[in-house]
Amino acid sequence: MEMEMRCKEEIDISIDITPYLFPLSFSLHNTHLHTHCSSCFSLLTPNNPTTNSHPPFYCSPQCSTAHSSIPLSSAEHHLPSSTTSSLLRTALRLLLLYPHVPSLSNRFNNLLTNRHLLTCQNDDVSETIRLGGRAMATAIAKQNNGGGGLIELIDDDAVLEIATVALCVVLTNAVEVHDNEGCALGIAVFEHAFSWINHSCSPNACYRFSFSNCSSVLSLESKLCIAPFTHNSQQLKIDSEVLGSSSEFAQEGRMICGPRLIVRSIKRIKKGEEVTVAYTDLLQPKELRQSELWSKYRFICCCKRCSSQPFTYVDHALQEISVFSGDSSVLRSNYKFCRDTADRRLTDSIEDVISEYLLVGDSVTCCENLEKILIEGLNDEKLEGNERKSHFKFTLHLLHHLSLSSYTTLASAYKVRASDLLSVDSEMDLNQSKAFHMSRTSAAYFLLLAGAAHHLFISESSLIASVANFWIGAGESLLTLTRNSEWSKFVNFDSVLSNLASDTNFECSKCSLMDRFKACTLNGQIKSEEFENVSNDFIHCVSDITPKVWSFLVYGCHFLKSCKDPINYNWLTSFESDSCYTHESENVIGVSERAYNDQTGAHILQLGEHCLTYGRLLACICYGPHSQLVSHVQNIIDH
Asked: pTM score, two decimals?
């Protein structure tokens, strides 16, 4: 029986459609056991009380009281250190709640097990289940022998069966819990009001997490705007025996702890319409999304975006490769082979560079290698099996998903390079100048990433969460640039701020647009029509400001110079032509690195404030006005 959740009423964007939901089971990843509270996932500080010399650690006595008995009762301390993971801990903790569930059922307390599909193939997933189930069964047996039985079953095969089923439930239903910076802290299995929400690559809802200790007072009075729907019933209904509530779990005293989750609309949802969220990265092209969904969950997505023929504009852009050829006849006869080979080679090259950077941390080499790939691409002489040379040159389109990954990595790597230069000897003028150059390039990549993702967002509004983070990143990097001590040699920022407050040339920072943003985000709700108007006004403003600073930001970076405008993409040639953009820098007016002035500083301040404010608006829609990300952005704007 296929389950789904549908809206009980018409919902506009930026509305909470569930109350706070408590997890049934959860666990930190091994890498965060020493840095975060094992109960609420909040970051530990030196002031947090703890009497343990080893995990679990807690941020407060309340969290310790609520959670400390769980690790001992769940048998996880009997797991071998080589197999201990958040996956196995979460599965064992789930058995604390439901130790008597029939192993042959396709549902585990009405959560889908998906066991048959997960174990039917000889792959990494089925091997993880096989080894993990055995490790759990062994741990349970040791727990039972010690007198603290987790499962009252004598038959070892039955214990292995129920352990395997619990593991499949976690693999099928658990979500990764991320902090505000996007770092994966652990995993959690939530109740049916969330677990029955299906995936779409063009979802109409998203979810956010809340981290606070158990002493925090939570409002459980938020309205549950969704109800379960089964295709054999053909009607919306609430079944209290099937769909528990957060308050019910709290009253039972089961798990009044853990990271909490709330679902929020990011599109207008009609009454009776299915509510969906994304299980995968929506900035991946269709093939990669489908591959990930199948490997993790064993289903093929048939949503509107995936079923579109031809591909949607966004999916086309995310996998587009630009081709330059000196022999069009050979291009037509050998195009598919060469393009597919080039795609694989470019993918491998960029993923290798990024993986090496994450492993080794050599930011200089990372920047050099990534920019070389973005500029030079791949020619047909490097393609194995291509005997007919025609002087092909394949480059990633500006909006290709690997290009977006490269911009993200380059923005971070240049930021690290600036920090490293200042940490060596911040007093040296040469290091300060180099660090300023690196910060400027980092800000340019952040702005390029935000502009490119926003261009895709116009066609696919489900990308809103990613776009919110990108605009916030761009705004922060631009304002960080203005705080660099190198500016003080050339720009009088006291004068700049005074001008921004009084001079009509800088009236944009005080225009009605900012007031509208603040009004829209005051209570975290905005009407669809008003949001569209605000978005159009925002793009109009930044499109006017960006050309005044772009040549300054990209000075000295050959690849960035080729990107003529990071906001307005009318200069990009149609996808159907042989080339989408050129790496030559004609029509880009270079500026001297020393050509700073008060006006340049003012425009960068304006641009940074606009990016942050719009990012805050998008974050409000996704996460609500009181989320930590929104508060973080507001603190930056206020200061």
From this structure: 0.88
